[in-house]
Specification:
The chain is of the alpha/beta class. It has 2 domains: 141 residues, 3-Layer(aba) Sandwich (Rossmann fold), CATH 3.40.50.10830; 93 residues. It is built from 9 helices and 8 strands. The strands form 2 sheets. Strands 2-1-3-4-5-6 form a 6-stranded parallel β-sheet, sandwiched between helices. A two-stranded antiparallel sheet has the order 7-8. Helix 7 packs antiparallel against helix 8 and helix 8 runs antiparallel to helix 9.
Length: 277
């Protein structure tokens, strides 16, 4: 039994499902997952509020997920626990210097720069818009292979821990082209469509950063963040087309976990899920 502690400090779209995708049918007997969250807050005081809770949980692997993980709050978590157990950082940004430091410290990381910042302007963003934004990205990540890629990375670490071995932690700075090249699409047109969707998300994130922090004119800022949200919606529409292409081709890859945590495999709809050969 591998005991995994997920620390969620602040929110990016990956925060919402990262723990659930490891045990999609709630049937795995090889892992036990505890989730501790400061919700949307990620300043040092939010991290410190979680420390007593983290210390109460038996942990074989920590996954710390946060926006901009080089900020003081996420860094406080990393520094406090990096020598106690394996730590993997999941974030939307980290510069080369930060990634090299983590690697030198034995900290793993998965950076997803195309998990875009939201358009957090008070005259634009309300709870409904926030939920729609994250929902569009969830659909895009699901259909374009992002979640599948990350699940594989974590399952490789879990398998090593189950075998009593020291795992090699992932050190990945994901790119849209890298993710889409790795996913076994069945239709030749699915891959460029998936790449387009993820590139749109990447560009939408840059536009939201500019709209929230760079643009001084209020009306232009509102136009920019609204436009970025429209881009994210369009990305989800393209991603839906990817999924429909795969279904129509009769070659849609499914990779469920069995109760022992092994990844099973199937392609055709009426196939039985089985171990990959």
């Amino acid at each position: 039994m591998v005991k995994i502690t997920l620390v969620k400090l602040g929110n990016i779209t990956l925060t919402t499902l990262i723990d659930i995708m490891l045990d999609e049918r709630a049937s795995r007997k090889d892992i036990e997952v505890t989730v501790l969250s400061s919700s949307t807050k990620m300043k040092p005081e939010a991290a410190e509020r979680l420390f007593p809770l983290i210390d109460q949980v038996e942990t074989d692997l920590m996954v710390m997920i946060s926006p901009n993980a080089k900020d003081k709050g996420p860094q406080a978590v990393i520094e406090k626990y990096k020598d106690k157990f394996p730590v993997i950082v999941v974030s939307d940004t980290a510069d080369k210097e930060m990634r090299e430091k983590w690697k030198a410290d034995g900290v793993g990381y998965v950076i997803v720069s195309f998990d875009p910042m939201i358009g957090a302007k008070i005259d634009f963003l309300d709870p409904t818009e926030m939920c729609l934004f994250n929902g569009y990205i969830i659909e895009t990540f699901s259909s374009c292979g992002v979640f599948a890629y990350i699940v594989r990375l974590f399952d490789e670490v879990i398998d090593k821990l189950k075998a009593g071995e020291k795992p090699e932690l992932p050190t990945r700075n994901l790119s849209p082209i890298g993710v889409t090249e790795s996913y076994p699409f069945g239709n030749d047109y699915s891959r460029p469509k998936a790449f387009a969707a993820l590139r749109i998300l990447q560009d939408a994130g840059k536009l939201n950063v500019n709209g929230c922090w760079g643009e001084k004119d209020k009306n232009r800022a509102l136009v920019k963040v609204a436009a970025a949200h429209e881009m994210v919606r369009q990305a989800s529409i393209i991603a839906d087309e990817v999924r429909e292409l795969e279904k129509a081709s009769g070659h849609l890859v499914r990779t469920p976990h069995n109760k022992e945590g092994e990844i099973y495999h199937k392609i055709h709809f009426f196939d039985n899920a089985h171990k990959e050969h």
